[in-house]
Specification:
With 399 residues, this protein is mostly beta strands. Helix content is 7%, strand content 46%.
Length: 399
């Protein structure tokens, strides 16, 4: 207190906040008199999370309840961020409540407290949504040749962490120096060194945790990879189109099947035509290239086609559909041309069709081209998915 009866508070601290009463005494009969002064010390925000551990686990579908408790003068305002973005909330709030109906809600949530004094303060809460394993397989089919290294991959997302096992012919894979299981984060691999023909077949990647089990199948095979049409494919005349494609195969290609048909018009599908084309080469892989002229096409017409390849292990899966046209064909945006979306089942022929083709194949055309005008043009009708479904039902039904 100074000589003039004033009060000075130096090095102000938050606990100095409050009311200060100055009281002066006067002789009777007046008594004493008082005056009140209030000090509010402003200080930067501080914040801590709830739960205090900064970690929260909930099961899929349960309610998430997290909060941040902030101190500071003026009263701090709380905002939230997650995965590098601000959460768009109706108002600023210290508490978040929502249902964990998606595993993607897992991650770090950051609350930020600001009050205009000093620097903002923040705290984090790591949310983990517990769920059964989810498996992603980028390649459901892997091409390999005897003597080389093969790798089967599956990516597993799970919390709690999943246990991964590989199965072959309904039995656990017998791991050895030749067959090794490898894990890197969420990526799990089965590495087969010096592949043998006895290794060909279907492998099961099985992931399990306390919440469930998930499976994914990967096939290891010696048949060729699906062919890829090259961009250099082009029209070489009013009724002729030149196709160039490449195939990855460690074994020589024996022959190709070229399927083509007129593009869909008016909602109706035309019949597929099939040509068998000799490989024209006995080269050993891994890349095999082929050029083929398709002649006798209709003028100004749209078509679609695909390629299958056969090596010593059988027929490959079909290539992607290629859309092509002869000179003068209307633009694909023309109202006369009706596009029909191709389902995955139509993009990849059922195995029953490929088996049928390998048993009844006959050669058409020659190594340089095929023609619609020749009598050796083969039509082929798709086996509808419902037919395959009925066959499977009969096979697995009770005796």
């Amino acid at each position: 207190m100074c000589e003039n009866n004033s009060l000075e508070v130096s090095s102000v601290k938050p606990e100095d906040t409050g009311e200060y009463v100055c009281q002066a005494s006067r002789p009777a009969p007046w008594g004493h008199v008082t005056q009140v002064h209030a000090i509010e010390v402003m200080y930067p925000p501080s914040v801590h999370p709830v739960p205090e551990s900064g970690e929260l686990e909930v099961a899929m579908g349960d309610e998430v309840d997290m909060a941040c408790v902030a101190k500071g003068v003026p009263t701090p305002i709380i905002s939230w961020r997650s995965k590098g973005e601000d959460l768009l909330l109706i108002d600023d709030r210290p508490r978040l409540r929502f249902h964990a109906d998606n595993r993607d809600l897992s991650g770090r949530y950051t609350c930020v407290a600001t009050n205009g004094v000093g620097q903002p303060a923040s705290a984090t809460i790591d949310l983990r949504v517990k769920h059964k394993p989810e498996i992603e397989v980028k390649k459901t089919w892997v091409h390999a040749s005897p003597g080389i290294r093969a790798q089967l991959d599956c990516k597993v997302i799970a919390w709690p962490d999943a246990k991964i096992e590989w199965y072959f012919n309904d039995e656990k894979v017998p791991y050895s120096p030749r067959i090794v299981k490898h894990t890197a984060g969420n990526d799990h691999s089965l590495i087969i060194r010096n592949t043998r023909t006895s290794d060909y077949g279907y492998y099961l990647c099985r992931a399990s945790n306390t919440l469930g089990v998930s499976d994914a199948v990967v096939e290891l095979s010696g048949v060729a990879n699906p062919a890829i049409f090259k961009k250099e494919s082009h029209s070489v005349g009013k009724t002729v189109y030149n196709f160039i494609w490449e195939v990855d195969s460690y074994s020589p290609i024996i022959e190709y099947q070229f399927w083509f048909r007129e593009f869909v018009r008016g909602g109706a599908r035309s019949e597929w035509h099939k040509l068998l084309i000799p490989s024209g080469s006995n080269a050993i892989g891994p890349v095999h290239a082929r050029s083929f002229n398709l002649t006798g096409l209709a003028l100004a017409t749209h078509y679609e086609g695909l390629i299958l390849s056969r090596n010593r292990y059988g027929w490959s899966r079909p290539s992607r559909l290629l859309r092509f046209s002869t000179e003068g064909a209307p633009s694909e945006d023309d109202d006369e041309l009706i596009r029909v979306e191709i389902s995955p089942e139509q993009k990849i022929m059922p195995e029953v069709e490929i088996a049928s083709m390998s048993q009844h194949s006959q050669r058409n055309g020659d190594a340089s081209g095929g023609s619609l005008s020749t009598p050796k043009v083969w039509g082929f009708l798709f086996v509808l998915p419902i037919t395959v479904s009925i066959i499977c039902t009969l096979n697995i039904g009770p005796a």
